Amino acid sequence: MSSNLINEIDIVKANTSKISSVDFENLTFGNIFTDHMLICDFKEGAWQKPIIKPYEPFMIDPSAKVFHYGQAIFEGMKAYKDESDDVWLFRPDENFKRFNHSAKRLAMPKVTEDIFIGGLKAILDLEREWVKKGKGNTLYIRPFMIAIGSGVIAQPSTQYRFMIILSPARSYYSGEVKVIIAEHYSRAANGGIGAAKAAGNYSAQFYPTKLANERGFQQIIWTDDATHTKLEEAGTMNVFFRINDTLYTAPTGERILDGVTRKSLIDIARRDGIDVEVRSLLVAELIEAAKDGSLKEIFGAGTAAVVNPIVGFSYQDNYYELPKMDNSYASQLKEKLTNIQYKLAEDTFGWTVKV
Ligand SMILES: *Cc1c(COP(=O)(O)O)cnc(C)c1O
């Protein structure tokens, strides 16, 4: 690492903390933020000195490119506190790599490791109190980058802002999740930006998801855009299907985001003798398995909810209910993954990183 900007980071501390006003038992996801935020600006071809300062709104020009052309990317991560009050990150190097992969695809500058990883450690060190002990308590971390250069000419910005904000969260139970298998809308297409964690991928999902909500379904299982025959992702999560005792999940690629939770669950499952097949399951195979009773489970996988079991799905106006499973793969794998994250089980993979 040539530069070492993070060693000269400016820290302006908040005069008072709002932590005592927060009800940590009753948090709704992503609404409350900690006392500080990290900002690092890119201009004249270089990253400037990062600063950590009190969390507050900021001004940017109305013609900033982020508003008009959607140059915006983000990451989602969590910090965990163990029983000895140490704070841990989970595979932050994966989020760092993915962030720069997203940056490249959106014609944005790469951030350096010392700004991304060093910045995470610096702000988390300051906000340790906000990471609560006990399984289910986490501090959700949202690194993001936006184009702040002004001017409505349709070309990449020359100025960017990288930020990290932090939000205390309880692991959530999202209620019973029923899904619709997409027959018309698509999340991503070959050659598109589906493999990037780009803000625009999310806004593009809102309308079809709203239509699904109106029909009583919480999420959509996305299929490939060309034929709508291959099962790809569940909402904003990767997706797993269990047929008999085999787990299926689609290979990541241009249309499927390379989730950290997904690849960690694959490794844990295989270590523990569960057969995992990484291939695109076809809608037709899913329907057949649902009809003959071999379909046991469907679950989404992602940082926010970890594992999200699906109770049933709709396809071409038929509804298929999943069996109620004791000791499901979803619950076993969630337990094993979160035990590693909270340092309650040995991290044989070397995934956890101390702050
Ligand atoms: C973020 C995201 C995921 C999950 O990734 P994790 O690294 O496991 O949090 C899956 N699919 C999409 C489309 C995503 O944006």
TrEMBL record:
Pfam families: Aminotran_4 (PF01063). Gene3D superfamilies: 3.30.470.10, D-amino Acid Aminotransferase, subunit A, domain 2 (3.20.10.10). Its EC number is 2.6.1.42. It comes from the Bacteria. InterPro entries: Aminotrans_IV (IPR001544), Aminotrans_IV_CS (IPR018300), Aminotransferase-like (IPR036038), B_amino_transII (IPR005786), BCAT-like_C (IPR043132), BCAT-like_N (IPR043131). One of its GO terms (molecular function) is L-leucine-2-oxoglutarate transaminase activity. Keywords: Amino-acid biosynthesis, Aminotransferase, Branched-chain amino acid biosynthesis, Pyridoxal phosphate, Transferase. The keyword Transferase applies. Its cofactor is pyridoxal 5'-phosphate. Belongs to the class-IV pyridoxal-phosphate-dependent aminotransferase family. This is Branched-chain-amino-acid aminotransferase. It comes from Flavobacterium piscinae.
